[in-house]
């Protein structure tokens, strides 16, 4: 594998490192790529504490928080979603992993049980409370995402929180405590559109670090009901024929893959 995750940092040296420096929604890039610098050269970058999280083809990878906008020439902030659109699976994996490791260190600096400042563990990506021993790991939030179909049609919606309000996508939602994934599919579809589904089938999953989701993809068949949207979650929902779709997510997203898979299946019939 090109990328090897690790929490055990290499010995200090003058060799170059990859620096994944994240703002709230951005990643610092150098001519569109992740900066590869020596530790000495990296001192000019406005970043907080650096955290080692693995290596790419033997090159150490560090993540850090962006603390200002005064960047060297040729460097700029790039929206993380835009970076995901323009790069490949390997760099999406590394950047997503680094983002979530950084979030661990930013969001769990204090113990959630007793409030004591935590410290990074030496051999794994976690933070430990020295007072009560509570260990915090990177947060992963499971969410289902489902292509609901009815013959030649697929159910698509525009979400309230979509960055692009013109885009339609499949429905999705977070898993509740004590809920199976299949029950979550049925519940989320019904809550958001009042449609009931059947034949819920798992397809595949995808890490989605915006900020910490694990998207778990399903297909489901229409069973009954008429569309009545939840206005707190959905701006618009409708059935779309496979050969007459609106603007949909990119192919690297699980949502885009579910929709395109449906189109291929119906086109082949």
Name the features.
Nucleoside Triphosphate Pyrophosphohydrolase, 269 residues, 4 helices, alpha+beta
Poorly predicted spans: none
**Count, helices:** 4
Report how far the terminal alpha carbons are from each other. 38 Å
Helix/strand-derived category reads alpha+beta
- Quote the CATH topology of the largest domain: Nucleoside Triphosphate Pyrophosphohydrolase
Strand content: 35-45%
Number of domains: 2
CATH superfamily of the largest domain: Nucleoside Triphosphate Pyrophosphohydrolase
The percentage helix is: 10-25%
CATH class of the largest domain reads: Alpha Beta
Q: Topology as H/E string?
A: EEEEEEEHHEEEEEEHEEEH
Number of strands: 16
What does it look like?
The structure is a single chain. This protein has 269 residues and is of the alpha+beta class. It has 2 domains: 105 residues, Nucleoside Triphosphate Pyrophosphohydrolase (Alpha-Beta Complex), CATH 3.90.79; 128 residues, Nucleoside Triphosphate Pyrophosphohydrolase (Alpha-Beta Complex), CATH 3.90.79.10. The strands form 4 sheets. Strands 11, 12, 13, 14, 15 and 16 form a 6-stranded mixed beta sheet that branches. Strands 1-5-6-2-4 form a 5-stranded mixed beta sheet, with helices on one face. A hairpin with a 6-residue loop joins strand 8 and strand 9. 31% of the residues are buried.
Describe, in short, the structure shown.
The chain is 20% helix and 36% strand. Strands 11, 12, 13, 14, 15 and 16 form a six-stranded mixed β-sheet that branches. It is of the alpha+beta class.
């Amino acid at each position: 594998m090109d990328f090897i995750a690790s929490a055990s940092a290499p010995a200090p040296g003058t060799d170059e490192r990859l620096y994944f420096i994240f703002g709230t929604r951005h990643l610092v890039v150098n001519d569109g790529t992740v900066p590869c610098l020596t530790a000495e050269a990296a001192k000019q970058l406005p970043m907080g504490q650096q955290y080692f999280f693995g290596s790419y083809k033997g090159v150490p990878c560090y993540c850090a928080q962006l603390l200002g906008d005064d960047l060297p020439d040729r460097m700029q902030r790039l929206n993380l979603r835009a970076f995901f659109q323009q790069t490949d699976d390997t760099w999406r994996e590394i950047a997503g992993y680094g983002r979530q490791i950084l979030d661990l260190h930013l969001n769990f600096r204090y113990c959630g049980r007793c409030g004591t400042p935590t410290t990074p563990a030496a051999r794994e990506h976690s933070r430990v409370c020295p007072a009560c021993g509570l260990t915090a790991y990177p947060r992963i939030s499971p969410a289902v995402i489902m292509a609901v179909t009815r013959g030649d049609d697929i159910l698509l919606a525009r979400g309230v929180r979509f960055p692009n309000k013109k885009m339609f996508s499949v429905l999705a939602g977070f898993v509740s405590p004590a809920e199976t994934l299949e029950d979550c599919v049925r519940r989320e579809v019904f809550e958001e559109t009042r449609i009931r589904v059947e034949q819920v089938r798992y397809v595949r999953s995808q890490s989605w670090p915006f900020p910490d989701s694990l998207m778990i993809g399903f297909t489901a068949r229409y069973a009954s009901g008429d569309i009545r949207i939840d206005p707190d979650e959905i701006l618009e929902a409708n059935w779309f024929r496979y050969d007459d779709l609106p603007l949909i997510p990119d192919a690297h997203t699980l949502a885009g893959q579910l929709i395109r898979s449906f189109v291929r299946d119906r086109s082949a019939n």
